[in-house]
Design brief:
With 116 residues, the chain is α+β, with helices and mostly antiparallel strands. 33% of the residues lie in helices and 36% in strands. It has 3 helices and 5 strands, in the order ααβββαββ. The protein has a 5-stranded mixed beta sheet with strand order 1-2-3-4-5, sandwiched between helices. A hairpin with a 6-residue loop joins strand 4 and strand 5. Helix 1 packs across helix 2. The radius of gyration is 14 Å and the shape is globular. The two termini are 22 Å apart. The mean pLDDT is 84.
Amino acid sequence: MVLINIEMKIHRHLGKNLNAGLYKHAFEAELSDKAISFVANKQYDVNYNGVILNYKFHVDFLVEDDVLVIVKSSRQTLDAIETSVYQKLVTPKPKTVLIINFYEDLLQFKKIIIND
């Protein structure tokens, strides 16, 4: 819930439909300010059937070594974004994925719990 509260604060302050990079920088600043551990622009190898492909899966943030955070400012619906996340989510197996979309008047977010 802390992460969603941070995103809501950013949305209230910056508003909607700006470049996603701006929201990412604000999120990074908030995480640092609250001393929450994270890695920005985390890259993962993609393992396809036991072979590491010459492709990297990029995620906006890995928070507390457990939550993948994807930040968007897009007309895409959260379901469409979720589908693209699952298509790419081959190697990383976090317990939680949080998709945030700043495009609309109200902040859109979806929390996905992955059970192995």
